[in-house]
Design brief:
Blueprint: H1 15-28, H2 36-45, E1 64-68, E2 85-89, H3 90-96, E3 118-121, E4 124-127, H4 130-139, H5 144-174, H6 178-193, H7 202-210, H8 213-224, H9 230-240
Antiparallel strand pairs: 1-2, 3-4
Length: about 240
């Protein structure tokens, strides 16, 4: 889970439309939120990922559902309130179910940096306080098959890529050709690209990469060799802003 920025309310949700859709939901329980002009900007705001588990919502098996942070059947007046809507995968939506965030608060990544309440260890999210613990439990964020295993796979790919980067660094130091330099910079950029907010499971990738001493040493040596570039620095800073400490 990473901090997300909520986009401005879509023009579609005018005051009149909100009143109309809210009343329709109260009258017949219609899924009035299932409208492209609601779902499209929601999906864009999370980089087409689930706001909670960060899985890609472009995968057919994980299609987007509109999640009502305050449960729609308890807080009917908020059924199309823009600040109450999040993009979610089906499994996170089902897991949260009827949980009442008013009486038992959860992390809303649009409102707070999840790192204030969550930590990361052994590919599991750990609650740092009551809100964090409730968030992990209510959303089943440590489901072994669905999430912990996937995070482990992501982490293993990071380790393999870091090993390649370290090998390419040594090759470059032995022979400072343009080809070897470009290959070295390309693999470092590839690792950092997977740590960007737009990437699936970015919090996991960023945390694993930026806690890897070998990768940090590669960065240190690139700086010493005057090979570190501004575009790499920008991506490093973005990764640092989502990595769990």
């Amino acid at each position: 889970m990473i901090k997300l920025e909520r986009r401005p309310k879509p023009a579609y949700l005018s005051e009149a439309v909100v009143i109309e859709l809210t009343q329709k939901f109260k009258n017949d329980g219609s899924s009035v939120w299932n409208h492209a002009q609601i779902k499209t900007p929601l999906l864009a705001s999370s980089n087409e990922k689930c706001a909670f588990c960060e899985c890609s919502l472009s995968d057919e098996s994980k299609y987007m559902e509109v999640e009502h942070f305050r449960y729609k059947n308890l807080y009917k007046d908020s059924v199309v309130e823009w600040s109450n809507l999040l993009p979610s995968c089906k499994r996170c939506n089902i897991a949260k179910g009827v949980h009442d965030v008013v009486t038992d608060p959860l992390v809303n990544p649009y409102d707070v940096d999840p790192r204030h309440h969550l930590s990361f260890r052994l590919y599991q999210l750990r609650g740092k306080d009551k809100i964090g613990i409730s968030t992990v439990d209510a959303l089943d964020l440590n489901n072994s098959d669905r999430l912990v295993l996937r995070r482990f796979e992501v982490g293993e790919q990071v380790f393999r890529s870091v090993r390649v980067a370290a090998d390419r660094l040594e090759s470059y130091k032995n022979s400072t050709t343009a080809i070897r330099k470009n290959k070295l910079l390309n693999i470092v950029e590839t690792i950092l690209d997977e740590c960007q907010p737009r990437a699936a499971y970015a919090a996991t990738t960023a945390t694993v990469a930026l806690s890897d001493e070998e990768f940090l040493e590669v960065i240190t040596q690139l700086r010493a060799l005057d090979l570190w570039k501004d575009y790499l620095e920008e991506k490093l800073l973005a990764a640092q802003n989502i990595a769990f400490q």
